Amino acid sequence: MKISLRAARLGPIFLALILAGCASAPQMQDGILINDPYEGANRRIHAFNKGVDATLISPVANRLRGSGEARPRDPSDPIGPVQMVVNAGRNLSLPGKAVNGLLQGRPGDAGRNLTRFAVNSTVGLAGLFDPAGENFGLTERDTDFGATLATWGVPEGAYLELPLIGPSTARDATGRVVDLVIDPVNNVLSGRDRRAAFGLRVASKAGERARFGDSVDGVLQGSADSYAQLRLIWLMNRRHELGEDRDDFDPYDDVIDPYED
User: Fold this and answer.
1) Which ranges in the chain belong to alpha helices (H)?
2) So what's the pLDDT on residue 31?
3) Angstrom distance (rounded) from CA 211 to CA 220
4) What residue ranges do the domains of the chain occupy?
């Protein structure tokens, strides 16, 4: 029994070593260094995500675009139901973003997100409207725990494509899990209310997908290699958000050498 328990504990370590041994070296794509050691598995997940998008998400997005709900909205235009859902879903994410602002040592951003949440949750009728942004100039400070890990010096890690979620990295995938744990909304709500909040966030993402549908369709359906194109665009955008888009950026340059004095 002791031997089996020890083997069970060492199993994940051996698995990690095997995967590391099979990992390929980072490569350049259009001048961008890409660390994609699990490309085979990532491509299979990408094919699944692409099929889900074509079958379920894209038709809904096309109907919304056809109705005019997904077009860019002028502040003077009356707000439609799709925009209300997007607003409410984004509003529910603000407390978690405020926590990450504090963890990143940015109390100003945290306070701004909390103030925005308070205004839109009350005056904005549970976040359906955005008086904080439209009337008070309190724009959102978008962030997440992946950005927090980057602030703490955690390296980007391998590129990953997650089922239903899409492009990510080892660092950002870990951040998504932690975001669920530290999110005040998830900790305050329970049962049906928590499921309703989660559904609202998913619907909000679907609304955003409809708004940028033409660009997404161009990458997924119009590219000779949609996987490589999406990977490149996502990594460039993410590194720009985190200030890691300098020409000499190396995803391994923050790894600590255990043998270094």
Assistant:
1) 2-22, 39-52, 58-67, 81-92, 94-103, 107-122, 131-134, 145-151, 170-182, 184-188, 191-211, 213-222, 226-241
2) 85
3) 15
4) 27-241
Question: Residue length, the chain?
Answer: 261
The gap from C-alpha 89 to its chain's centroid, in whole angstroms, comes to: 14
Give SS3 for 207: helix
Contacts 24+ apart (CB under 8 A), 135-138: 138/112
Query: Is the dihedral angle over the CA atoms 186, 189, 190, 194 positive or is it negative?
Result: negative
Q: Is the dihedral of CA 237, 242, 243, 246 positive or negative?
A: negative
pLDDT, tens digit (0-9, with 9 covering 90-100), for 196-228? 998 888 888 777 766 666 677 778 777 889 999
> Does the pTM of the predicted model rise above 0.85?
no
Q: Show the tokens assigned to 39.
A: 């490309």
Q: Which residues pair with 33 in a beta bridge?
A: 28
59-68, 164-173, 185-194, range with greatest mean pLDDT: 164-173
Q: What is the CA angle 69-70-75, rounded to 5?
A: 80
- Reported as a pLDDT band with limits 50, 70 and 90, residue 12 is very low
Q: Which two tokens stand for residue 7?
A: 């083997």
Partners of 162 in beta bridges:
166
Q: Cα–Cα distance between 91 and 118 in angstroms, integer?
A: 9
Residue 91: its pLDDT value, please?
A: 96
